[in-house]
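Notes to self after the Tuesday call (sharing in case useful).
The group wants a holo model before anyone commits to mutagenesis around the pocket. I volunteered. Ligand is pyridoxal-5'-phosphate. Logging inputs and output together so the record is complete.
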Amino acid sequence: MEKISNELKKIKKSGLYRELNIVEGAQGPHVKIKGRKYISFCSNNYLGLANHPEIAKAVEDAVKKYGWGAGASRLISGNMKLHETLEEEISKFKRKEATIVFPTGYMANIGTICSLVSSGDLVICDRLNHASIIDGCRLSGATFRVYPHRDTVKLENILKKSSKYPRKLIVTDTVFSMDGDLAPLPDIVRIARKYKAMVMVDEAHGTGVFGKNGRGVVEHFNLNEKVNIVMGTLSKAVGSLGGFVSGDKNLINYLRNKARTFMYTTALPPAVCAASIAGIKLIQKDHSLRESLWRNVHYVKEGLKLLNLNLVSSESPIIPVMIGDAKKAVNMSSFLFESGVLIPAIRPPTVPDKSSRLRVTVMATHTRADLDKLIDVLKSG
Ligand SMILES: Cc1ncc(COP(=O)(O)O)c(C=O)c1O
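Result:
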């Protein structure tokens, strides 16, 4: 226990200690913390669906019909009508043959990567991939190689020396969650074909946000026929909870039989599936949500460009303001908080050393006044 206390002291001293805020009402562009209203610029609730009335109604109806808990894992007796409906809806939305839903995106990545490769195989990752991908790669037991962020020359160099591996898997975020830039997917797909490697993409921040129909970055690059393993999460633009993988029937049946994070865990409550189904339908039906998100994103980016800030080249609603030092980032975040704007500092180990930042995320439901306030406060900070 003494070791734990010492480690905690060290974490605090280096400005890396994390504390939880308690949001007192529902999630939205404005949240209440300790009785005070803040404009939230740190949620993945991109389209505002986490508190949408149509979704709340779908949840209410599902609880009345199906109760709350699923009671067992999918493979025992927890597989209910709404799990199947959700998988069908995601397959239609993603234009894939079949889908498997996991309780979270984190579990989808871990279970899928560990099923696709194991000891003796090769798994290759962008350096800035999400923690759940990194953890999946480590747990898989496969040889794990990392290439510098978006560097497809280095990716190809790794593959040039990969002929001894029976299975090769490239895994990449499509939208990088801390930098907001996009993976060079057309190049990755081309190189993967050349060396007969599988490509798995994580559309956590792409789903509902990118593509003409909100299907994701794969749609944005028109690569649906060429990317065979599409992972995503229902916890961000869809406003709900759960992870999924879409692909051909063989792949999905394989994962149903192999992925431990699917097999050995209780199924999602059916009402959560109802929320996801309603969210996916809304994304497809109401394009104005996405239009308003992108209008807001462009407005904020234009506004921030005029300030003397260190911005990296984001291509998404994730807009990092680079600070560098962890303590400075915390001070800046506290200043914003005092001014009524909620943006926690993102620090190591979530991001590399000396690259602490304020990660601004924009939502469809922010008003022009909210966006102006963000720009004003950052100007005076
Ligand atoms: C790129 C990426 N992949 C996976 C996940 C995990 O998804 P979930 O929150 O559904 O577990 C996240 C969320 O933090 C993410 O940003």
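Two things stood out.
The mean pLDDT is 96.
The chain has two domains: 14-43+287-380, 53-285.
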